[in-house]
Structures are given as C-alpha cells and as structure tokens.
Amino acid sequence: MSKKIAVLVGSLRKGSFSKQIAKNLMKLFPSDYEPEFVEIGNLPLYNEDIDTPENVPAEYTEFRNKVKDAAGVLFVTPEYNRSIPGGLKNALDVGSRPYGQSIWDKKPAAIVSVSPGAISGFGANHALRQSLVFLNMPILQQPEAYIGNVTQILDEDGNVAEGTVGFLQSIVDAYVELLNRY
Ligand SMILES: Cc1cc2nc3c(=O)[nH]c(=O)nc-3n(C[C@H](O)[C@H](O)[C@H](O)COP(=O)(O)O)c2cc1C
C-alpha cells in the first residue's frame, strides 16, 4: 500500500512559488509514496468556542482526517515578516486540538522554506521548527532546505533548473530515510 504524505503549503496565492517548489518535490518521491496537497486556506481561524463536538467546523474535521491518514507531513512555506504565514500557524493550531488528540504527534516532517530573497526564509523555517518540536514531530535535520532567489530557479512552466533537481532530490531522499525509521 502506498504511503500518503500530506503536503502543506504556507502560501494561499494562486501563483505561489512555494507551491511550485512543492510540486517539484512531490515528483521526486519513490513510487510507493503518494504526496498530496492538503488545503489550509479554508480553515476558519482557530477558536476553542467552536471546537466542540456539536459545533466543530466540517473543514476542521476534514483537515484532521486527511493529515491523520498520512505517514508524514511535508511543509513548504514562504516567510512572512520573519516568521510563518498566519494561515499555516492556524493549520498547526487546528491540528493540535482537541487536547490529547493532536494529528501531528510523532509524524515525521520535513520543512522547506522558499523566498525570492537571499535569506531564503530562514526565519520561517526555524519558527516552524519551534512549533513542530513542541508538537512532537521528528523533523528532518539535514540537509537543511532553504530555497532562496526562487525566481531565478523556476522556469516559466514552474520547473526547477537541472542543477536544483539534485538538491531537491537529496531533501526527498533524506526525508524518505527518516520516514522509514518510523
Ligand atoms: C505579508 C508579507 C510578509 C513578507 N515577509 C517576508 C519576509 O519576512 N521574508 C521574505 O523573504 N519575504 C517576505 N515576503 C515576500 C515573500 O517571500 C514573497 O511574497 C513570496 O513570493 C511569497 O511566497 P509565495 O510565492 O509562495 O506566495 C513577505 C510577503 C508578504 C505578503
């Protein structure tokens, strides 16, 4: 049976460079893995008042079930103001509750930060790491995945240049090795 990998993209915009990088990464998984995008843009802002058995939004339940079903989570995110976009933090919060039923617990994760700038989303990468440590996710350590100057890497069809495929493959290979340990 193929192993599902939930792919969460921190950007909600249609032409997102992060999403384009995510698509390139998804093509590089071995055939027994099934990476798939999980939507985060439709999740209502987390509010404990609505997260009750009577009121829980259908979007929360669908999101939680999809991630629960996955063997691991690949995060590909831009940096907003030296941290992660609010939508991605909201998704982490939604998945972490109800208390004691976190969907993130023990799920191996990989983080890829993406930016048109030279600092490569370093701040977002590590802000995300901070939350994932608390959420008890084993996180890929090496290679660290900071994709900077992304507009120079992607062609007009959204494919990465030949030289970058090898780097993306090394990230996926190391992540698969991590997944195989769990
Ligand atoms: C609210 C906001 C804050 C941003 N802050 C940063 C930042 O701290 N660091 C950075 O490298 N880029 C920053 N940017 C620029 C984004 O990297 C750029 O818009 C990028 O294309 C967003 O990723 P996407 O293409 O996946 O949507 C910011 C953009 C927005 C909209």
Could you please describe the fold and organization of this structure?
Helices cover 35% and strands 15% of the residues. With 182 residues, it is an alpha/beta fold. It has one domain (3-180): Flavodoxin domain (Rossmann fold), CATH 3.40.50.360. The longest helix is centred in the last third of the chain and has 19 residues, at 162-180. It is globular and about 50 Å long. It comes from Companilactobacillus formosensis.
Core attributes:
FMN binding; 5 helices; alpha/beta; globular; 182 residues; Rossmann fold; binds flavin mononucleotide; oxidoreductase activity; five-stranded parallel β-sheet; NAD(P)H-dependent oxidoreductase; NAD(P)H-dep_reductase; Flavoprotein-like_sf
Q: What is the CATH first-level class name?
A: Alpha Beta
Question: How large a portion of the residues is in β-strands, by DSSP E?
Answer: 15-25%
Helical content stands at: 25-40%
* The CATH superfamily title: Flavodoxin domain
Kindly, what is the distance between the CA atoms of the first and last residues, rounded to a whole number of angstroms?
16 Å
SS element count, helices? 5
Explain briefly what this protein structure is.
With 182 residues, the protein is an alpha/beta fold.
